[in-house]
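User: Sequence for High-potential iron-sulfur protein below. Tokens please.
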Amino acid sequence: MKSVNRRNFLKLTGSSLIGLTVGGVALRANAQEKLAESDPTAVALKYVHESKVEGQYCENCMFIQGGEGEAWRPCQIFPGKVVAAKGWCTAWAKKG
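Assistant: Structure tokens for High-potential iron-sulfur protein:
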């Protein structure tokens, strides 16, 4: 087994940290794709960009993420996608 000296160890850990940081940025960038109403999961959960159910919107659902007041935000139900804050789906659950 090859021994790792301090210099090589620091190079390896530095490269790993850079890779994790760049990878995290790439994941956040991918999460910006807007969910299409025609997406198979969206169809299965009857997702719509504009809720027809009074008082039930993605923005007041427990699964929504991201900052308040944003028109499109990440949702735990649809990983890698953002949903309309005024949208709705059958998985809607009131924020606690």
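The mean pLDDT is 84.
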